[in-house]
Write a structure and sequence with these properties.
2 domains; Rossmann fold; UDP-galactose 4-epimerase, domain 1
Length: 329
Protein backbone atom coordinates (compact mmCIF):
# COMPACT_ATOMS: atom_id res chain seq x y z
CA UNK A 1 0.00 0.00 0.00
CA UNK A 2 1.21 3.55 -0.74
CA UNK A 3 1.13 5.35 2.62
CA UNK A 4 1.65 9.02 3.37
CA UNK A 5 3.30 9.31 6.80
CA UNK A 6 2.60 12.81 8.10
CA UNK A 7 5.19 13.64 10.75
CA UNK A 8 7.37 10.82 9.42
CA UNK A 9 10.63 12.47 10.56
CA UNK A 10 9.56 12.41 14.21
CA UNK A 11 10.16 9.77 16.86
CA UNK A 12 7.18 7.51 16.24
CA UNK A 13 6.67 8.46 12.60
CA UNK A 14 10.22 7.49 11.61
CA UNK A 15 9.84 4.08 13.23
CA UNK A 16 6.54 3.65 11.38
CA UNK A 17 8.28 4.42 8.07
CA UNK A 18 10.94 1.80 8.78
CA UNK A 19 8.39 -0.87 9.69
CA UNK A 20 6.09 -0.05 6.78
CA UNK A 21 8.98 -0.74 4.41
CA UNK A 22 9.81 -3.98 6.19
CA UNK A 23 6.16 -5.03 5.83
CA UNK A 24 6.24 -4.45 2.07
CA UNK A 25 4.44 -1.10 1.95
CA UNK A 26 5.64 2.08 0.21
CA UNK A 27 5.84 5.05 2.60
CA UNK A 28 6.10 8.70 1.56
CA UNK A 29 7.04 11.23 4.25
CA UNK A 30 5.67 14.71 4.88
CA UNK A 31 7.21 16.67 7.77
CA UNK A 32 7.79 20.39 8.29
CA UNK A 33 10.87 19.54 10.41
CA UNK A 34 9.78 21.89 13.17
CA UNK A 35 10.50 19.05 15.58
CA UNK A 36 11.42 16.15 13.35
CA UNK A 37 14.84 15.12 12.00
CA UNK A 38 15.62 14.70 8.32
CA UNK A 39 18.32 12.21 9.32
CA UNK A 40 15.62 9.87 10.65
CA UNK A 41 14.18 9.33 7.15
CA UNK A 42 16.08 7.05 4.73
CA UNK A 43 17.43 8.90 1.70
CA UNK A 44 15.55 6.62 -0.69
CA UNK A 45 12.13 7.33 0.87
CA UNK A 46 10.30 10.21 -0.86
CA UNK A 47 10.41 13.18 1.51
CA UNK A 48 8.62 16.53 1.41
CA UNK A 49 9.26 19.36 3.85
CA UNK A 50 5.62 20.38 3.88
CA UNK A 51 3.10 21.33 6.55
CA UNK A 52 0.07 19.12 7.15
CA UNK A 53 -2.04 22.21 6.51
CA UNK A 54 -0.68 22.86 3.01
CA UNK A 55 -3.61 21.47 1.01
CA UNK A 56 -2.25 22.25 -2.45
CA UNK A 57 1.08 20.54 -1.83
CA UNK A 58 -0.64 17.57 -0.22
CA UNK A 59 -2.99 17.11 -3.17
CA UNK A 60 0.01 17.05 -5.52
CA UNK A 61 1.71 14.44 -3.33
CA UNK A 62 -1.42 12.29 -3.15
CA UNK A 63 -1.64 12.28 -6.94
CA UNK A 64 2.08 11.84 -7.68
CA UNK A 65 2.48 8.84 -5.36
CA UNK A 66 -1.01 7.31 -5.72
CA UNK A 67 -1.47 7.52 -1.94
CA UNK A 68 -4.01 5.06 -0.52
CA UNK A 69 -3.75 5.73 3.22
CA UNK A 70 -2.53 8.46 5.57
CA UNK A 71 -0.88 7.86 8.95
CA UNK A 72 -0.98 11.09 10.92
CA UNK A 73 1.72 11.61 13.59
CA UNK A 74 2.29 15.36 13.16
CA UNK A 75 1.18 16.75 16.52
CA UNK A 76 2.62 18.95 19.22
CA UNK A 77 2.70 16.85 22.37
CA UNK A 78 4.04 18.74 25.40
CA UNK A 79 1.34 19.05 28.06
CA UNK A 80 2.91 22.05 29.81
CA UNK A 81 3.46 23.85 26.53
CA UNK A 82 -0.17 23.25 25.60
CA UNK A 83 -1.27 25.00 28.79
CA UNK A 84 1.04 27.95 28.10
CA UNK A 85 0.14 28.26 24.41
CA UNK A 86 -3.19 26.55 23.74
CA UNK A 87 -3.90 28.35 20.47
CA UNK A 88 -0.70 26.91 18.96
CA UNK A 89 -1.89 23.43 19.92
CA UNK A 90 -5.38 23.89 18.52
CA UNK A 91 -3.94 25.34 15.30
CA UNK A 92 -1.39 22.55 14.80
CA UNK A 93 -3.26 19.56 16.18
CA UNK A 94 -6.83 20.42 15.15
CA UNK A 95 -6.92 23.02 12.38
CA UNK A 96 -4.06 21.42 10.43
CA UNK A 97 -5.73 18.02 10.68
CA UNK A 98 -8.91 19.48 9.21
CA UNK A 99 -6.87 20.81 6.28
CA UNK A 100 -5.31 17.38 5.86
CA UNK A 101 -8.72 15.68 5.84
CA UNK A 102 -10.00 18.21 3.28
CA UNK A 103 -7.03 17.51 1.01
CA UNK A 104 -7.64 13.77 1.37
CA UNK A 105 -11.32 14.16 0.51
CA UNK A 106 -10.60 16.20 -2.62
CA UNK A 107 -7.99 13.62 -3.72
CA UNK A 108 -10.20 10.62 -2.98
CA UNK A 109 -7.93 9.20 -0.26
CA UNK A 110 -10.25 7.39 2.15
CA UNK A 111 -8.07 5.61 4.74
CA UNK A 112 -6.73 7.38 7.82
CA UNK A 113 -4.85 6.20 10.93
CA UNK A 114 -4.78 8.81 13.67
CA UNK A 115 -2.26 9.10 16.49
CA UNK A 116 -4.40 9.80 19.55
CA UNK A 117 -3.47 9.57 23.23
CA UNK A 118 -4.44 8.33 26.66
CA UNK A 119 -4.42 12.03 27.63
CA UNK A 120 -7.99 12.14 26.27
CA UNK A 121 -9.03 10.20 29.41
CA UNK A 122 -7.72 12.82 31.82
CA UNK A 123 -7.64 11.47 35.37
CA UNK A 124 -9.82 8.34 35.19
CA UNK A 125 -11.66 7.08 38.24
CA UNK A 126 -10.84 3.43 37.53
CA UNK A 127 -7.72 1.56 36.42
CA UNK A 128 -6.92 -0.12 34.06
CA UNK A 129 -8.25 2.19 31.38
CA UNK A 130 -10.50 0.67 28.73
CA UNK A 131 -11.74 2.28 25.53
CA UNK A 132 -15.08 2.85 27.28
CA UNK A 133 -13.52 4.92 30.07
CA UNK A 134 -15.03 8.44 29.92
CA UNK A 135 -12.84 10.88 28.01
CA UNK A 136 -12.34 13.95 30.17
CA UNK A 137 -9.02 15.55 29.18
CA UNK A 138 -7.55 18.04 31.64
CA UNK A 139 -5.23 20.03 29.33
CA UNK A 140 -5.30 21.55 25.84
CA UNK A 141 -3.10 18.77 24.43
CA UNK A 142 -5.58 16.07 25.45
CA UNK A 143 -8.52 18.20 24.37
CA UNK A 144 -6.97 18.80 20.93
CA UNK A 145 -6.67 15.05 20.37
CA UNK A 146 -10.22 14.39 21.56
CA UNK A 147 -11.49 17.12 19.22
CA UNK A 148 -9.89 15.33 16.28
CA UNK A 149 -11.44 12.02 17.34
CA UNK A 150 -14.87 13.69 17.26
CA UNK A 151 -14.11 15.35 13.91
CA UNK A 152 -13.17 11.96 12.46
CA UNK A 153 -16.43 10.43 13.66
CA UNK A 154 -18.45 13.26 12.11
CA UNK A 155 -16.48 13.12 8.86
CA UNK A 156 -16.98 9.36 8.60
CA UNK A 157 -20.72 9.78 9.18
CA UNK A 158 -20.94 12.13 6.19
CA UNK A 159 -18.53 10.25 3.87
CA UNK A 160 -19.59 6.64 3.46
CA UNK A 161 -16.25 5.45 2.03
CA UNK A 162 -14.05 7.05 4.70
CA UNK A 163 -12.36 4.48 6.99
CA UNK A 164 -10.36 5.49 10.04
CA UNK A 165 -8.69 4.39 13.24
CA UNK A 166 -7.87 6.36 16.39
CA UNK A 167 -5.13 4.77 18.47
CA UNK A 168 -4.80 5.99 22.04
CA UNK A 169 -1.17 5.67 23.09
CA UNK A 170 0.16 5.27 26.57
CA UNK A 171 3.86 6.03 27.23
CA UNK A 172 5.81 5.22 24.07
CA UNK A 173 9.43 4.31 24.81
CA UNK A 174 12.55 2.62 23.51
CA UNK A 175 14.34 2.63 20.17
CA UNK A 176 14.49 0.37 17.15
CA UNK A 177 16.08 -2.92 18.09
CA UNK A 178 18.71 -2.53 15.37
CA UNK A 179 19.70 0.86 16.89
CA UNK A 180 19.19 2.79 13.66
CA UNK A 181 16.40 4.98 15.08
CA UNK A 182 15.78 6.49 18.48
CA UNK A 183 14.18 9.24 20.52
CA UNK A 184 15.47 12.78 20.06
CA UNK A 185 13.18 15.53 21.36
CA UNK A 186 14.20 19.14 21.96
CA UNK A 187 13.59 19.60 24.84
CA UNK A 188 13.47 16.03 26.08
CA UNK A 189 10.75 15.46 28.66
CA UNK A 190 10.13 11.71 28.44
CA UNK A 191 11.22 9.66 31.42
CA UNK A 192 13.60 7.06 29.98
CA UNK A 193 15.63 9.32 27.65
CA UNK A 194 15.77 11.99 30.38
CA UNK A 195 17.40 9.47 32.73
CA UNK A 196 19.79 8.26 30.03
CA UNK A 197 20.82 11.81 29.11
CA UNK A 198 21.66 12.33 32.77
CA UNK A 199 23.97 9.30 32.65
CA UNK A 200 25.57 10.70 29.50
CA UNK A 201 26.44 13.90 31.38
CA UNK A 202 23.98 16.18 29.62
CA UNK A 203 22.10 16.85 32.86
CA UNK A 204 23.41 17.19 36.40
CA UNK A 205 20.78 14.94 37.92
CA UNK A 206 17.38 13.42 37.33
CA UNK A 207 14.48 14.83 39.31
CA UNK A 208 11.77 12.51 40.65
CA UNK A 209 8.59 14.52 41.12
CA UNK A 210 6.72 13.13 44.11
CA UNK A 211 7.56 10.22 46.39
CA UNK A 212 4.36 10.14 48.43
CA UNK A 213 1.86 8.75 45.93
CA UNK A 214 -0.37 5.85 47.05
CA UNK A 215 1.76 3.31 45.18
CA UNK A 216 4.07 0.57 46.51
CA UNK A 217 7.19 2.77 46.36
CA UNK A 218 5.54 6.20 46.45
CA UNK A 219 6.29 7.18 42.82
CA UNK A 220 3.98 7.43 39.83
CA UNK A 221 3.19 4.32 37.82
CA UNK A 222 2.84 4.41 34.03
CA UNK A 223 2.36 1.98 31.13
CA UNK A 224 5.40 1.91 28.79
CA UNK A 225 4.89 0.49 25.28
CA UNK A 226 7.86 -0.16 23.00
CA UNK A 227 7.82 2.04 19.91
CA UNK A 228 8.13 -0.91 17.52
CA UNK A 229 5.16 -2.69 19.10
CA UNK A 230 3.19 0.54 18.72
CA UNK A 231 4.07 0.86 15.03
CA UNK A 232 3.29 -2.80 14.39
CA UNK A 233 -0.21 -2.08 15.71
CA UNK A 234 -0.54 0.83 13.28
CA UNK A 235 0.27 -1.35 10.31
CA UNK A 236 -2.08 -4.11 11.43
CA UNK A 237 -4.88 -1.60 11.96
CA UNK A 238 -4.23 0.07 8.59
CA UNK A 239 -4.62 -3.26 6.83
CA UNK A 240 -7.98 -3.85 8.56
CA UNK A 241 -9.60 -0.48 7.84
CA UNK A 242 -13.14 -0.72 6.48
CA UNK A 243 -15.73 2.05 5.84
CA UNK A 244 -18.35 2.33 8.55
CA UNK A 245 -16.24 0.46 11.11
CA UNK A 246 -13.98 2.87 13.00
CA UNK A 247 -11.20 1.13 14.91
CA UNK A 248 -10.66 2.69 18.34
CA UNK A 249 -7.99 1.05 20.46
CA UNK A 250 -5.77 1.60 23.48
CA UNK A 251 -2.11 0.80 22.87
CA UNK A 252 -0.23 -0.19 26.01
CA UNK A 253 1.21 -3.30 27.63
CA UNK A 254 -1.51 -3.60 30.26
CA UNK A 255 0.64 -3.05 33.32
CA UNK A 256 2.57 -0.20 34.89
CA UNK A 257 6.09 0.49 36.10
CA UNK A 258 6.90 3.09 38.74
CA UNK A 259 9.47 5.82 38.28
CA UNK A 260 11.75 4.07 40.79
CA UNK A 261 11.36 0.78 38.91
CA UNK A 262 12.43 2.51 35.69
CA UNK A 263 15.45 4.04 37.45
CA UNK A 264 16.37 0.58 38.78
CA UNK A 265 16.02 -0.87 35.27
CA UNK A 266 18.40 1.79 33.93
CA UNK A 267 20.90 0.89 36.65
CA UNK A 268 20.68 -2.83 35.80
CA UNK A 269 21.03 -2.24 32.05
CA UNK A 270 23.85 0.33 32.16
CA UNK A 271 25.66 -0.69 35.32
CA UNK A 272 25.65 2.97 36.35
CA UNK A 273 23.98 4.69 39.28
CA UNK A 274 21.57 7.43 38.28
CA UNK A 275 22.16 10.72 40.15
CA UNK A 276 18.69 11.47 41.50
CA UNK A 277 17.14 14.35 43.39
CA UNK A 278 13.59 14.46 44.70
CA UNK A 279 11.04 17.18 44.25
CA UNK A 280 7.36 17.77 45.06
CA UNK A 281 4.52 16.33 43.01
CA UNK A 282 3.64 18.05 39.77
CA UNK A 283 0.07 19.30 39.49
CA UNK A 284 -2.14 17.00 37.46
CA UNK A 285 0.06 13.89 37.71
CA UNK A 286 -2.23 10.94 38.56
CA UNK A 287 -0.70 8.24 40.74
CA UNK A 288 -1.38 5.31 38.40
CA UNK A 289 -2.20 5.07 34.70
CA UNK A 290 -2.10 1.92 32.61
CA UNK A 291 -4.06 0.45 29.76
CA UNK A 292 -6.43 -2.39 29.23
CA UNK A 293 -5.52 -3.34 25.65
CA UNK A 294 -7.73 -6.43 25.56
CA UNK A 295 -9.90 -5.05 22.77
CA UNK A 296 -7.21 -4.89 20.08
CA UNK A 297 -5.93 -8.31 21.12
CA UNK A 298 -9.37 -9.90 20.82
CA UNK A 299 -10.36 -8.16 17.60
CA UNK A 300 -7.05 -8.06 15.68
CA UNK A 301 -4.73 -10.43 17.52
CA UNK A 302 -2.18 -7.73 18.40
CA UNK A 303 -0.03 -8.21 21.49
CA UNK A 304 3.11 -6.32 22.50
CA UNK A 305 6.30 -8.34 22.13
CA UNK A 306 8.37 -6.23 24.54
CA UNK A 307 6.82 -5.92 27.99
CA UNK A 308 9.88 -6.05 30.24
CA UNK A 309 11.01 -2.57 31.21
CA UNK A 310 14.70 -3.55 31.15
CA UNK A 311 14.40 -4.70 27.54
CA UNK A 312 12.75 -1.41 26.60
CA UNK A 313 15.50 0.54 28.40
CA UNK A 314 18.20 -1.57 26.74
CA UNK A 315 17.03 -0.61 23.23
CA UNK A 316 17.00 3.06 24.23
CA UNK A 317 20.45 2.86 25.87
CA UNK A 318 22.03 1.25 22.79
CA UNK A 319 20.78 4.11 20.61
CA UNK A 320 21.63 6.94 23.01
CA UNK A 321 25.09 5.47 23.63
CA UNK A 322 25.78 5.66 19.89
CA UNK A 323 24.02 9.03 19.49
CA UNK A 324 24.81 11.06 22.65
CA UNK A 325 23.79 14.25 20.83
CA UNK A 326 20.80 12.64 19.15
CA UNK A 327 20.66 12.75 15.36
CA UNK A 328 23.22 15.55 15.45
CA UNK A 329 25.73 12.83 16.37
Amino acid sequence: MHVLVVGGAGYIGSHAVKMLREAGHSPVVVDNLARGHREAVPSDVPFYQVSASDGDELRNIFKKHAIECVMHFAALAYVGESVENPLMYYENNVAATIKLLQAMASAGVEKFVFSSTCATYGEPATIPITEDTPQKPINPYGRSKLMVEKILADHAASHSQFAYAALRYFNVAGASRDSTLGEDHRPETHLIPSILLTLLGQRDNFVVFGTDYPTPDGTCIRDYIHVEDLCAAHILVMERLRPGKPLIYNLGIGRGYSVKEVIDAVHHVTGRMVPVTYGPRRAGDPAVLYADATKIHKELGWKPEVTNIEEIVETAWRWHSKHPAGYAS
